[in-house]
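Throughout our pipeline, every protein is held as a single compact record rather than as scattered files. The remainder of this section carries one protein's record, kept here as part of the documentation.

===
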Amino acid sequence: MFLFDRLLDVLAAVAAALLVLIMFSVGADVILRSTIGHSLTWSLEFSEHALLGILFLGMPWLAREKGHVAVELVTETLPANLKKPLARIIAFICACLLAFLAWWASKLALQDYAMNVKTIGIHPIPRYILPAVVSFGLLLTSLTYLRETLFPARYGPSTTSGPVA
């Protein structure tokens, strides 16, 4: 589990670095367009693809840290002895749904790879990369929720609001 957690930490750092790179590329693009009349032709496409990376590379870390939005309107009204079992059931359902979506995205990535599909834009890249990143992030998030289900004492859902420290 240590290696899995380190992988999530590294991917979160990559997501953060992508956010910084977007900031600098958009800033440089605006400055260059304003001063010399030329822009960075790759900046917009990079930003679009990087946003996808930020979302799906950071999602497993966010799930581990319990930093996601949780609607607790119903669960907060339940007796304490039902909260943890229900949280485990919900985590298991999330793991299953995310695993299905990861499978679906990987199926799309393999189709795009087999057909050599490229993105549409000034600087096209192989399109299979995008659903592959989606699939990877969904799979890791699924494993994070599965870990909550299987090892509730160590990784289980918190019965308190907010991130678990």
